[in-house]
UniProtKB/TrEMBL annotation:
Motif range (Histidine triad motif): 89-93
Organism lineage string: Eukaryota, Metazoa, Ecdysozoa, Arthropoda, Chelicerata
Protein's recorded name: Histidine triad nucleotide-binding protein 1-like protein
Coiled coil residues, start to end: none
Active site per UniProt: H91
Span of domain HIT: 23-99
PANTHER family per the UniProt record, alphabetical: HISTIDINE TRIAD HIT PROTEIN
Length: 105
């Protein structure tokens, strides 16, 4: 499992991979995606607990590497149609690098 920033590897992991985006919703925007095909959080099972917890550890590690730990960052996981999920493979958006507003519209 590999997290990458265009061409350069950032971190190697086992169950999860992470994709670093350019300037999308914020100066730093990356996804944390499990290799296991879980369509959405509400479809996960108790057997997925290790993967879901590992995803949070990956968020922390990549956020540290991208310099977000001190200033903070936001996690977004859309679930289902009313949650605006458009890609039906579970993933976490991590955005940061600037002051974020609320609501996140």
């Amino acid at each position: 499992c590999v997290a990458f920033d265009d061409i350069n590897p950032v971190v190697f992991l086992n169950l999860i991979f992470s994709i670093i985006f350019g300037n999308h919703k914020a100066p730093v925007h990356f996804l944390v995606i499990p290799r296991k095909p879980i369509t959405q959080l509400s479809k996960s099972t108790d057997d997925d607990e290790k993967i879901l917890g590992h995803m949070m550890c990956v968020v922390r590690k990549v956020a540290e590497q991208k310099g977000l730990s001190e200033s903070g960052y936001r996690l977004v996981m859309n679930n289902g149609r009313h949650g605006c999920q458009s890609v039906y493979h579970l993933h976490i958006h991590v955005i940061g690098g600037r002051q974020l507003g609320w609501p996140p519209c």
